[in-house]
Design goal:
The chain is mainly alpha-helical. The protein has helices at about 10-30, 40-75, 95-120, 120-150, 185-200, 205-220, 230-250, 250-260, 270-275, 285-305, 310-335, 340-360, 365-370, 375-390, and strands at about 90-95, 160-165, 175-180, 225, 265-270, 280-285.
């Protein structure tokens, strides 16, 4: 946990880049502690609220990742997430991506550090605010879309729309943006835009948290690890990365104190004294939610693949996350120093399920579990069709 990193966009490649950028910036920027005096009640309320807010996107994001994965297998027809376009498809992280991620994250972190040293923080944060405003509106709209589908009655007149931009003409015509949405989605976008304007104008912590929760949930839902080996590589690499940049240098602390964007969850420790205008915050970086969260979501999909009508590995890893986050808070509160949350979360989230798999004799099956990327699924279906035709 830190005291101080989806989001669907029209282009799938841009979606992956945007999510990774947000995760990079989050995990890098948010492990600093701002020291201040707070009452025991205020501290307990703040940390308890952060833990609860961290659990919500992991739990619901993991559940939605199962539906998202099923839609990938059947062509996207059974997953009503609202915006029907390619950006809804999950981005699969391979072992190569996982191995490069800590390096990319480190370069991004150090680049931000140099930017804040050379250029004015005011202008950089202004650009970041506009960038995350757009991402946040889309992320919040995507998050709310299934809820809107359940709220509105079946008799509701739901008109369909399509936003299409193309390049070239005739046979050389190429789609740049193909965005399908309906009336319910427009309402979600309006709500997201209202929250976005509120955040831009006031930078209020509630607006920040709404965007942060949306980013985290979208990250857990749409970023899929292809197997447990990849998850271990990713978490192991970011374990080293987190420890080095928190304990080894002041780079992360400097960036964290300079970086203003909704890539963290915050809760005031002086809420009881100052109300909603409180300003002394405890903070948790989105990277400390999404990185373990995508591994927990993978274990839920593994549970589903076993077809045993149980969620053993999901609940084990979920409880392990609670234990790791609680241990982080305890150590940080005891030693009054910023802690790299992945130092505690990674061993817990990986170790507990592995121990359970050893006890149940399913360790080999766990590490053999493999998810097929969408493009591979399409190739496989084409090959099977060709065989039938022959």
């Amino acid at each position: 946990m830190a005291d101080t990193d989806q989001v669907p966009v029209p282009d799938p490649e841009a979606a992956a880049a945007a999510v990774l950028d947000a995760l990079n910036a989050t995990e890098e920027a948010l492990n600093a502690t701002v020291k201040f005096v707070a009452s025991a009640e205020g501290t307990a309320l703040a940390y308890g609220s952060l833990v609860l807010m961290a659990l919500l996107p992991i739990f619901f994001g993991a559940l939605r990742s199962v539906h998202c994965s099923k839609s990938k297998e059947v062509g996207g027809n059974d997953y009503d997430s609202g915006f029907r376009n390619a950006s809804e498809m999950p981005e699969t992280i391979t072992s190569r991506d996982a191995a490069r991620f800590p390096i990319i994250a480190s370069c991004t972190l150090f680049g931000l550090y140099l930017f804040f040293k050379v250029f004015s923080q005011e202008y950089i944060n202004m650009l970041l605010s506009v960038y995350f405003f757009g991402l946040g509106v889309l992320a919040l709209a995507h998050t709310l879309s299934p809820l809107m589908s359940r709220i509105f009655p079946a008799s509701f007149s739901n008109k369909q729309y399509q936003l299409l931009f193309t390049q070239g003409s005739d046979d050389n015509k190429e789609e740049i943006v193909n965005y399908e949405f309906d009336t319910k989605n427009l309402l979600c976008l309006v709500i997201g835009a209202v929250v976005g304007v509120w955040y831009l104008l006031k930078k209020h912590w509630i607006a920040n948290n709404l965007f942060g929760l949306a980013f985290a949930l979208n990250g857990v839902e749409l970023l899929h690890l292809n197997n447990v080996n990849t998850g271990c590589i990713l978490l192991g690499g970011l374990f080293v990365y987190d420890v080095f940049w928190v304990f080894g240098t002041n780079v992360m602390v400097t960036v964290a104190r300079s970086f203003e964007a909704p890539i963290k969850l915050v809760f005031p420790q002086d809420l009881l004294e100052s109300g909603f205008g409180a300003s002394n915050f405890a903070m948790l970086g989105l990277g400390d939610i999404v990185i373990p969260g995508i591994f927990i979501a993978l274990l839920l999909r593994f549970d589903v693949s076993l077809k045993k009508n149980s969620r053993t590995y999901f609940y084990t890893s979920f409880l392990a996350y609670i234990f790791g986050l609680g241990l982080t808070i305890f150590v940080m509160h005891t030693f009054k120093h910023a802690q790299p949350a992945l130092l505690y979360l990674v061993p817990a989230c990986v170790g507990f399920p592995v121990v359970v798999a050893l006890i149940k004799g399913e360790l080999t099956e766990m590490f053999r579990y493999e998810e097929t990327p969408p493009e591979d699924t399409e190739v496989k279906e084409e090959s099977e069709t060709e065989k039938k035709d022959q």
